[in-house]
Amino acid sequence: MNIGIFTDTYFPQVSGVATSIKTLKNELEREGNQVYIFTTTDPHVDKDTYERNIFRFSSIPFISFTDRRIAVRGLFQAYEIAKELNLDIVHTQTEFSMGMIGKFVAKNLNIPCVHTYHTMYEDYLHYVANGKLLKPVHVKEGTLAFCYHLAGVITPSDRVLDKLTEYGVKCQMRIIPTGIDVGMYAKSIDTDIREKYHISKDTPVMLSISRLAYEKNISEIVDLLPSIIEQVPKVILMIVGDGPAKEDLMKQVTQLGLSKHVIFTGEVSNDHVNAFYRTANVFVSTSNSESQGLTYIEAMAAGLPVVVTSSDYTDGLLSNESLGQTFKKSDEFTEIVIRYLTNPVDKDNSKAKKILDQKLTEISAETFGKRVVDFYHSVTVEQQLQKDPTATNIE
C-alpha cells in the first residue's frame, strides 16, 4: 500500500505522538508498504535538508503550545504530491492543520481516511485563556466535526474509545495501542547514567519521564517524596523531560528541602532514554491525563517495574506485580513504591520472565503494525462496499 501519514508533529520534535508515528512508519515499511510523512516545517530542520519520503509544509508555532507547529499553507500542494504518489489511504494523526489537509486530500482522491485520536483534549483546556475560553462541549463539537466522513478512527485505549462514543462519533472505531521497538529497550546500555549524575550503585532511584506539563501531575510525586524518604533515606527521584511546569517543579523541590533527592535532567532524545530506564529501580507516574502512556510500556520493556495511576488501561497493562502496580490513593502510591525500592523484582525468576515475554509480544511494534494494516484493509473494504454494495471479490 502507498500510505500518507499527516501530522503536525514529527521528529526532531520530542513527543509521544512523534514516537508513535515513527514506530508505525518503520513497521509499515518493514511489511513492504510505502509510507510518506506529510508534516510541518521545524526550526531545527534546515529547509534545504533532504528527508526521504518526508514533505514539510510552512508552519508557525501553535498558540499555547509553542513547541508544537501548525501549517499555514499547503492544501493544494499536498493534494498534488499525494496524487503523484498514488496514495491508497490517508492516515491523519492530528485534528488541526495537517489533519484537515489530510482529509481534503483523501476526499479529493476518493480514498479512505483513517485517523488516530491521540489526545484527550479536555485535560488540556487550561492552556487556552486559563480554561475560561474553551469548555468540554467545544471539544465534543470539534471532535464530531473532524470525525465526520472519516473511514475509521484508531484509539489507543478504552478510555479514548469510551469518550469518542460518548461524544457520538459514528464511524468504525478500533482500539489499537501504540507498540514499541521491544528490542531497543531490552538490550543493555553502555552509558553509565549513575556515574554521569554522581549516583552510587546502591542508591535506590525513582524515575519519571514525561513532558513537564501541569496535567502530568508530577508535583504530586514531589509532594509524596518525603514520605518515601522516611523509609528509604537515600532515594533519588530523577525527573526526565522539559516543559512549562519545570520552573514550578524546581521551586517546589527547593521549598520542600528536597534538592539532594531530586535530579532534573532536562529533555532526553528517544535514542538515549533507555539508559535511564535501565538505571532506575522503579518507574513512577501520578498522571491522570494519559490516553495510553508510551513511557509505561517502554519502562516495562526495559524490565523496570511501573507504578502508575489506576485506569482500565493501566490495570489491564500491569496484570502482574512483577510488571508493576496501579494505585488509587496517595498512601497506596507511597507503599507500593517503597516496596519496589526495598524488595526489587527478581528478573531472573522463570515465572516473571514468562509473564514479561507474553506482555512484550502484546505491546511490540510488530503487533501494532499488523493491527493497523488489518484496520486499513477493513475500512478499505467497507468504503468499497459503500460505493458498490454488489461487489463480492473485494480483498
Report what the structure shows:
It is a single chain. The protein has 395 residues and is an alpha/beta fold. It folds into two domains: 2-179 and 365-387, Glycogen Phosphorylase B (Rossmann fold); 182-362, Rossmann fold, CATH 3.40.50.2000. The chain contains 15 helices and 15 strands. The chain has helices at residues 16-30, 75-85, 97-109, 136-147, 158-167, 182-186, 193-196, 218-231, 246-255, 273-277, 294-301, 312-317, 330-342, 350-362, 365-387, and strands spanning 2-6, 34-40, 54-57, 59-62, 65-71, 89-92, 113-116, 152-155, 172-175, 205-209, 236-240, 262-266, 282-284, 306-309, 324-327. The strands form three sheets. The chain has a seven-stranded parallel beta sheet, with helices on both faces. Strands 12-11-10-13-14-15 form a six-stranded parallel beta sheet, sandwiched between helices. Helix 2 (75-85) crosses helix 3. The protein is globular, with a radius of gyration of 22 Å. The protein starts with a strand and ends in an 8-residue tail after the last helix.
Mean pLDDT: 90
- What is the level 1 CATH name of the largest domain? Alpha Beta
From the coordinates shown, what is the CATH architecture of the largest domain? 3-Layer(aba) Sandwich
Shape: globular
Helices and strands, in N-to-C order? EHEEEEHEHEHEHEHHEHEHEHEHEHEHHH
What percent of the residues sit in helical stretches (DSSP H or I)? 40-55%
Instruction: Summarize the main sheet.
Output: 7 strands, parallel
Uncertain runs are none
Q: Please count the beta strands (DSSP E, at least 2 residues each).
A: 15
Label the structural class: alpha/beta
Structurally, the number of domains stands at 2
What is the CATH superfamily of the largest domain?
Glycogen Phosphorylase B
